[in-house]
């Protein structure tokens, strides 16, 4: 591909003399308050340590937030607009939402905003924010959600009727780069209401506070210049200027200055130092409370705003233009419109090259917004745990409890990087397994960035010295499913296609060695009794289990996890496949491939219950045709927890297909494998039809032989159990009428099918794995079915749906599941998008209906989006699923030459699933 954006990517990725096109980007968080990083309380109560009410007055230690904001890649300089409709009690500088304890289903943003467009170098970005013209109902949202229990739906902004008769502004925010440090900024304000409406618009520029903590006293400066613009001086940035174009009716915007300092008078009733007179909330107090002394009359500070006062006619629009660029621009707006349109056109060219095979304008719109959300969800993430634990020299030391509390065992961790976030408001911190899924859609458009994200968590300043990957900041020691190797292999293969068949072996080899450390940690720490049966804890599935699987067990009690064990079987196969790829350039890796081949067989042996006479480690129930967790207690012995959930479907994911031509290149691996299979016949029997090559002389490694796979698929493809119109449910619908109950003398524990939000607050999570459809797990199911089909071919057919009397190939079923998932977002025959729910605004209003939200999970019966509303992270996988497959079964590449080598394409068929 040779669009201008591809050329910028090549320049940004050049190994020497790279052009820093990514230096500025959408790296501000949507929420910094309520995070662990800003929590210095004794009890670790992050939600109350820094609140939304405190945020306007509190200088953050570890990051910044804004509405559709940007910053440089170390978040030294930040830009974001603020608004005031003349009625709100506070300046709208940040997105409002409920904290975890306030929401009846946990934390929840209560705003309407959409990430509409973006490019990998952020040469063009577009975001839409919907701002009411009446007073924002802050108190009503808090109080009404506080009155509701978990059985009731969340009370949303639209439920307040604040948008009645369209009394709101659509504020379109666009950025376009004339150069790496020359950024055009355009705000277009649409008055959707029936009356003329006033609006104060305050584009704000500020420095992250790095000087108040007693570590480095250097203070950068913003200063009003004689031309009515704002000069930027920072020792680590080039000289910059924020040019603020006057309006015809307002010759020059007023420039307001304060400092990014905590207002200790307001927050702590304490007198600030004499050197601090103008605080972070100074612009808010000047505008809303007419406090003239809240801003600096000298026109200097570390936070500044250009104050525009608009009166937008009913049904019309007004436009503001700014430019953050070099100080020597004589006419900063002379070429503004031409450059802005050029970047819009180039963005269209970039996506047109990607989307040539997408079947409809609607599909192209959905995919483009999904990818835009992925790119907007990048964030500068800064957290130095040893500094956080000991505190800063300029402040009293943190409470003593901190040294033994949250994340105290992660003293090596020092993160200061651009990281892909699950949701920059609801989850403004990375999560290990989320990030792995993010990298696939990201690799469609920026494989370089995707590879760097995978490298990041494997670095010494992320990975624990013992080999554990950090889960997420709420508790780095929690355990996420080990999908990092899977993502590494998948991104490697995607990148290989884009590079015309030349794989980035250096990336793969470096990741492989670091993953060895993590694999070893799993073996040493999560297989307590050395039986190749793994625990792992809740493994990211929150409340899917009968008990909190991450809680400490009573002495002598062990939870044998079907999903934890299957994830490790998958991990072993992914490591084996990487080793085989590395063998092509270094034959020594055949030994490593053999190691992981054997490890997979030992795990398969444990799951099959063939550990010798009297063994009772079997996690499979043949009568039910399903895998279950098993609880072993001294009082009751081993007892399967017969909850039919995604836990029992994870064994599908441990599947690998090896082609005969690959085997011929690995004589040492084949010799060792043959010896092993001949001399360990009980293990050889576990390898699905190993001695019987499948379609095209291929060999299959899987936890599931044909009989078990058919039984499992019978459950999974049954509409009365797992199969929803919108994908595979996380819990069988069977449990709606037949809840699973585990009896103890103290209490009964119940698991019931809940297709929407969780009706219990078990285990402290706001997520629900007891029924809804989740994109990442469905993605892995589809990929696994495609791999199985790659081996079995068209002759292997399964009833689909169960009970229908109709049979399909596994590839046909994978395609059908893909269609069910894409159905969530695409318009149906009535023009409705299930994911947007029943509200008429979302479905029918022309100013809403084509804007997409990518939720955390989806109602299993209606398809409505639930949970975090901007979790374009792993729900961004829809961008990958929307890409069609070729009729011959080979998969389209994201960005590649269609005339690439056919042998590579055939090899990729099984690896580049689903839907590429």
From TrEMBL:
A Pfam family the protein falls into: MGH1-like_GH
Cited InterPro entries: 6-hairpin_glycosidase_sf (IPR008928), 6hp_glycosidase-like_sf (IPR012341), Glycoside_hydrolase_63 (IPR004888), MGH1-like_GH (IPR054491)
GO terms classed as biological process: oligosaccharide metabolic process
All copies of domain Mannosylglycerate hydrolase MGH1-like glycoside hydrolase, residue ranges: 427-532, 703-872
Coiled coil: none
GO terms, molecular function: Glc3Man9GlcNAc2 oligosaccharide glucosidase activity
SUPFAM superfamilies: Six-hairpin glycosidases
PANTHER family (alphabetical): GLYCOSYL HYDROLASE FAMILY 63 C-TERMINAL DOMAIN-CONTAINING PROTEIN (PTHR10412:SF10), MANNOSYL-OLIGOSACCHARIDE GLUCOSIDASE (PTHR10412)
The protein's name: Glucosidase
């Amino acid at each position: 591909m040779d669009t201008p954006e591809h050329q910028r990517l090549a320049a940004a990725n050049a190994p020497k003399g790279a052009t820093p096109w990514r230096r500025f980007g959408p790296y501000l968080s949507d929420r910094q308050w309520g995070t662990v990083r800003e929590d210095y309380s004794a009890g670790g109560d992050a939600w109350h340590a820094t609140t939304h009410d405190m945020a306007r007055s509190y200088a953050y230690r570890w990051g910044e937030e804004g509405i559709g904001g940007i910053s440089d890649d170390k978040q030294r300089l930040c830009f974001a607009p603020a608004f005031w409709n003349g009625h709100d009690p506070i300046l709208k500088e940040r997105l409002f939402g409920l904290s975890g304890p306030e929401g009846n289903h946990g934390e929840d943003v209560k705003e309407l905003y959409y990430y509409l467009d973006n490019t990998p170098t952020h040469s063009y970005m577009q975001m839409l924010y919907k701002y009411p013209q009446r007073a924002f109902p802050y108190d009503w949202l808090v109080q009404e959600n506080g009155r509701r229990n978990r059985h009731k739906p969340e009370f949303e902004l639209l439920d307040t009727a604040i948008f009645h008769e369209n009394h709101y502004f659509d504020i379109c925010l666009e950025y376009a780069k004339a150069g790496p440090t020359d950024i055009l900024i355009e705000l277009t304000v649409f008055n959707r209401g029936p009356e003329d409406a006033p609006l104060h618009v305050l584009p704000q520029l500020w420095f992250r506070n790095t000087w108040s903590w007693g570590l480095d006293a250097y203070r950068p400066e913003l200063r009003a210049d004689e031309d009515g613009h704002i000069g930027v001086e920072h020792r680590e940035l080039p000289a910059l200027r924020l040019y603020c174009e006057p309006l015809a009716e307002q010759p020059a915007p007023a420039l307001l200055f304060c400092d990014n300092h905590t207002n200790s008078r307001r927050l702590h009733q304490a007198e600030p130092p004499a050197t601090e007179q103008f605080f972070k909330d100074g612009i808010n107090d000047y505008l809303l409370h007419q406090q003239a002394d809240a801003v600096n009359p000298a026109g200097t500070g570390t936070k500044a705003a250009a104050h525009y006062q608009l009166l937008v006619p009913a049904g019309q629009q007004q436009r503001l233009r700014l430019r953050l660029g070099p100080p020597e621009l004589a006419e900063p707006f002379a070429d503004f419109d031409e450059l802005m349109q050029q970047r819009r056109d180039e963005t269209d060219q970039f996506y047109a090259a990607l989307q040539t095979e997408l079947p409809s304008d609607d599909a192209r719109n959905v995919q483009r917004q999904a990818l835009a959300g992925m790119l907007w969800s990048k964030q500068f993430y800064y957290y130095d745990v040893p500094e956080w634990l000991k505190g800063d020299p300029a402040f009293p030391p943190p409470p003593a409890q901190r040294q033994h509390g949250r994340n105290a065992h992660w003293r090596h961790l020092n993160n200061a990087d651009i990281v892909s976030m699950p949701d920059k408001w609801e989850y403004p911190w990375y999560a290990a397994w989320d990030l792995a899924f993010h990298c696939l859609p990201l690799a469609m458009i920026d494989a370089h960035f995707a590879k760097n994200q995978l490298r990041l968590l494997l670095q010494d300043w992320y990975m624990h010295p013992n080999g554990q990957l950090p889960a997420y900041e709420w508790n780095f020691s929690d355990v996420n499913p080990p999908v990092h190797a899977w993502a590494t292999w998948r991104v490697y293969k995607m990148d290989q296609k884009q590079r015309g068949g030349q794989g980035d072996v250096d990336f793969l080899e470096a990741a492989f060695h670091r993953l060895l450390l993590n694999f070893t940690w799993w073996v040493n720490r999560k297989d307590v009794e050395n039986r190749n049966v793994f625990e792992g804890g809740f493994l990211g599935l929150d409340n899917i289990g009968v008990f909190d699987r991450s809680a400490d067990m009573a002495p002598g009690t062990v939870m044998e996890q079907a999903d934890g064990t299957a994830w490790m079987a998958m991990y072993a196969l992914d490591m084996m496949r990487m080793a085989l790829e590395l063998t092509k350039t270094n034959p020594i890796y055949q030994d490593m491939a053999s190691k992981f081949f054997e490890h997979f067989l030992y795990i398969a042996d444990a799951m099959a219950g063939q550990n010798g006479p009297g063994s009772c480690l079997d996690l499979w129930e043949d009568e039910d045709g399903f895998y279950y967790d098993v609880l072993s207690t001294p009082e009751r012995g081993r007892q399967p927890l017969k909850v039919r959930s995604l836990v029992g479907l994870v064994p599908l994911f441990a599947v690998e297909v090896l082609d005969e031509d690959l085997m011929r290149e690995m004589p040492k691996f084949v010799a060792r494998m043959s010896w092993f299979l001949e001399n360990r016949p009980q293990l050889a029997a576990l390898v699905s039809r190993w001695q019987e090559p499948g379609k095209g002389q291929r060999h299959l490694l899987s936890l599931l032989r044909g009989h078990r796979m058919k039984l499992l698929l019978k459950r999974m493809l049954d509409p009365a159990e797992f199969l929803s119109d919108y994908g595979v449910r996380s819990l069988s619908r069977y449990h709606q009428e037949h809840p699973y109950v585990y009896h103890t003398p103290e209490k009964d524990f119940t698991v019931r099918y809940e297709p929407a939000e969780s009706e219990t607050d078990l285990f402290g999570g706001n997520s629900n794995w007891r029924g809804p459809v989740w994109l990442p797990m469905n993605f892995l199911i589809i990929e696994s079915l495609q791999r199985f089909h790659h081996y079995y071919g068209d002759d292997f057919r399964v009833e689909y749906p169960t009970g229908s009397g109709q049979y399909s190939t596994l590839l046909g079923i994978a395609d059908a599941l893909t269609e069910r998932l894409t159905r969530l977002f695409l318009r149906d025959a009535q023009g409705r998008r299930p994911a947007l729910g029943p509200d008429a605004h979302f479905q029918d209003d022309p100013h809403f209906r084509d804007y997409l939200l990518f939720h955390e999970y989806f109602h299993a019966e209606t398809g409505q989006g639930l949970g975090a509303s901007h979790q374009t992270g792993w729900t961004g996988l829809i961008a990958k699923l929307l890409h069609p497959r070729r009729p011959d079964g080979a998969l389209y590449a994201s960005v590649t030459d269609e005339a690439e080598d056919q042998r590579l394409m055939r090899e990729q068929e099984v690896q580049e699933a689903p839907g590429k």
